[in-house]
Amino acid sequence: MSEDNSIPKSKPTTVEVRLPSRMGFEKVAMSTAAAVAKLMCFREDRIEDLKTAVAEACINAIEHGNRLNEKLSVGVVLSVSADSLEVKVIDDGKGMNRQPGAVSKPDIDRKMHGDEGPRGMGMFLIQALVDEAEWVVGADGNSSYVRLVIRLDKEQ
Asked: Is 8 a member of any domain?
């Protein structure tokens, strides 16, 4: 008798992980996201894309959001739906200098023309690897998150 270890697509499922703001713990989030994606039957190449995007988002939250303050943590919330996996990476810090409630996207033209510093290329990488990416500063100005969505292929 074989067991079906996949996640039922008809029931919403949420997995949450809280990480210390210390480099290296992004690997815990990567492994967790990969395990959930595998249970959802994502292709291996898409799982690798997801792992890279989640790692980059966690590193940004640790370094830029929480500013390496080990008293703060990073939350990772994975939400499974019938055709996609949403990952929110939430920091407790002030993050980059943005207005509360602001949604940000990287501006490649400004970087290419030297109007913005070279840092922040990870945001471009994240956008290239997932189907949706959005950066939001919390209403209180003391938290922010990145929301990533990766969709299952129709033929899966």
From this structure: no
Cross-strand bridge partners of residue 89: 76, 146
Is residue 7 in some structural domain?
no
Residues of the domain holding 49: 13-151
| Secondary structure element (H or E) that encloses residue 149, with its range | strand 144-151
Cα separation of 107 and 105, whole Å?
Answer: 6
Q: CA nearest 156: which of 60, 78, 42?
A: 42
Return d(Cα 10, Cα 156) in angstroms, integer. 16
Quick check: 17 and 73 in contact, CB under 8 A?
Answer: no
Provide the pLDDT confidence category of residue 118 given band limits of 50, 70 and 90: low
Beta bridge partner(s), residue 134: 147
Mean of pLDDT values over 50-77: 95
pLDDT at res. 139: 76
pLDDT digits (tens, 9 = 90+) for 26-41: 999 999 999 999 999 9
